[in-house]
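A common beginner's mistake is to predict each chain separately and then try to dock the pieces by hand. The better habit, illustrated here, is to supply every component at once so that their relative placement is modeled jointly.
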Amino acid sequence: MTRALALHLAVLAALFAAQFLLPSYHHTNIARIMVLAVFAMGYNIAFGYTGLLSLGHALFFAAGMYATGLGIELWGLSAAPALVLGLLAGAAIAAATGVLALRTGGVSFMIVTLMFAQAGYLTILYFGAYTRGDEGIVITRAARSIGSLDLSSDTPRYFAALALFSVGLLLNLALTRSNLGRAMIAMRENEERSRMLGYNPFKIKLTALLISGLYAGAAGAAYAVLFGYVGASFATIQYSILPLLYVLLGGAGTTLGPFLGALLMFYLIDISSGYTTAHLFVVGAALLILVLFAPKGILGWVRDRGAKWLP
Amino acid sequence: MTKLIGMTPSRRTLLKGMAATASALALPGFVQAQSSAPIKLGFQLHRTGIGAAYGRWYERTTQAALKVLNDQGGINGRPVEVIFEDDGTDPKRGAEVVEKLASQAGCDAIFGPLFSHVVNGSAPRAGELQVPYLVCSEGFHVASGKLNRWTMQPGITDVRAQVSSMAPWVAANLGKKVTMVFPDYAFGHDHRDYFTAAIEAQGGEVIKHIAIPPTETSFTRYLPQIPKETEVLYHVMVGPAVLTFVKELGEFYGTGTRPEIFGFIDSLEAVDTASPGLEFLEGTHFWEGHCRVKQADASEHEAFYRMAVGVDDTGASVSDSKDVATYAHMFSTWETLFVLKKGMEAAGYQTTADRQKLIEAIEAMTNMPESMEHPQGAKVFNGKTHQVFGHQSISKVEGGKLVRVHMTSIEDGMYEDAVDYTTMSF
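With all components supplied together, the output reads:
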C-alpha cells in the first residue's frame, strides 16, 4: 500500500468516524461539503489536471440536479434511476459543450463556457412551467428514498454523501495514476509537445471534460435527492466560481485539494458571517493572501515543501 | 462523657444530608432558571444579496416588535431573544442557516424569509429538523401543498390571493382589456396565471402577455408590443430595472393618450415615488400590502406600529428621509412574531419538545382581528393550508404620494384549498 493510498483511506476513515462524533450541525454540514467536494473534484479534473479553465461548470451541476429533480417530479422516477439520469445528464451536457467549446482555448474557452452556462440558466427560467423558474422545485421526502433507505434522514444522508465522495475520490486517485491521467497533465503542461508525441489533444480534453461533467452531474443529482431542493440559483455564475475557489484554495491538481478547499471555504463563510456582513470580503482577502503566498493552494504548498508523493 | 452511639451522624450520612440540603436549596433556582430562560427565535435574514433592501427593514421591524413583546412580559412569562442570521438571499445558504439556527443556536422556531427560492430551499430542512418555520414570503408555495407540516405563512397574504383580489376593482374602475408586463420567471408567472383567470371571472380579458427576460435592462423593444386597444397596462417588475422601465414607458407614451396603468408596489419598494424620472407615475395605481404613506383614516394600531418601527408619515425612516421603508411587506415579520407568541401561549410552550403543539396551536387559529399585533389589518388564517388572508390596498399616485383609493375585502382573495396539511404526519 502506498503512502498516497493510505492517506486517502485515512481521510475516508476519518470521515466515517466523524459520523459518530460530530454534533448535529456539523454533521449535516460535512455531508453537504462532501457533495460539493465531488463537484469540485470534477472541476479539478478539468482545471487542475487538464488546464481547462472553465466558467461553465454550474451548467453541468445544474444538468445533474434538474435531470434528477424533473425525473422525479415530472416522470415519476424513483430516486435511484433519477440519480443515474442526473449523472448521465451532467456528462452528456459537458460532452456537448466540450465538442463546441474545445475548438477554442485559454480566455476564449472561459468565455464560451460562461456563455453556455448562462444560456443554460436562462433555459431553466424559460421553461418555468416545468422547472418553476427561479423558485425551484421542492422534492418531497417520500421521493427521497432508495429502497428502505430514507435519504432525508441524517445518518443515511451522511453515508450516501460519504459513499459518493469515496467513489469519486478513489476514482480520481486512480485516474491520476492512469495513462489517461498522465496524458491530461501533459495537455496542461505542454499541449503542442503532446501533439507532437502523437496524442490527440481534442480527444483527451473532451474525455477530461466529460469525466468532469460526470462528477459535477453526480454532485448535482445527489444534492437534489439528499437536500430536497432543485433551483435555478445553482445554475448561476456563482456556482461556476465556487468550485474554482475550492480548488484554488485546497490545491489545484491535488486529489484531496477540492475537499480541503470546500471544507475551509464553507467554514470561512459560516464563521465570518457571524461577525460581519462583509463575509465575502473576508473570503476575498483569504484568497488574495493565498495567491500571494501559496499560489498552488494549500496542498500544492505542502507538496512543494517535501510531500512530493502527494497526488 | 457518654458517647451517644447511633445518634451521631456518620460522615457519609452527613455528606448525604448536605448534598440533599444543597439540592433542595438549588432546585428552585434550577427550576427558575429553566422557566425564565429566554425563548430563542431564529430569524433567517436577507441581510446581503438581492433581498438586502428588504432585509434591512425586516430586521428593524422585528427588533421593534421584539421590544414591544418583551416590554409586555415576553412569552409565557419568559423573555424572548431573536437571533438573526444572514442567508445571503441564497437557497443553499438558507438551508444551512435553518440548520445553524435550529441545531447550533437551539432556536425554538425560525421565521422571517421573504424570497420564494430561499423558502423552497430551506423548508425541506426545517421539516427534517421538525422546527416550526414561519415564512413571510407571499409565495403561493405554502398553500400549494408543496412544502410540509412545519412550514406556515401566518403573517402575509400570498401572491395568488393578492393578485386575484385586484381584478374586481381593476375591471370596475380602470378597464377590462388588460395587457400584462411581467418578469419571465416564477414570480411573474404567478401574476400572469392568477390575474388572467381573475380578470376573466370579472368579464374582462388579458389581450396580451409581455414576458420580460430577467436579464433585460432596456424595455424599448417590448413597449411597441402593447396593443393600442389596451385599457389597462398591468406591470409587475422587480429589481433595479424597474426605474428604467417606468422612464421608458413615459418616453414611449410621451404626452399622448395612454392606458390606465396599474402596478405592484414590489416594483418600487424602498424607492421614493417622488424620485426624478418617476413623474410619469402620477395618476397611476399600485397594489400595496400595507399603505406606505400614513392614510387619513389610519388606525391607532397602524400609528403605533409606524412609530415603533421608526417610519415617518411618508414611509421613510424617521432618521433618514431618503431611506424609504419596504412598508408593503415588512409588517409580516411583526405580525408573525406575535402569531408565534399567541401560538406558544396557547400551546403552553416550554421546550423544543413542544414544537409540535405549537404547530397545532397555530393551525387552530382562525380570526385575527386588527390590533397592535396585526397593525396591517384583520386577517383570517386557514389552518389547513397554513396560509393567512388579509385586506389589500389599491393606491393612486397623487402629488408624488400614494393615496389609498380602495381596500379589498378578505374574501376577495380567497380560493379553494389545494392541501390539508393537518392530515399530514409530522
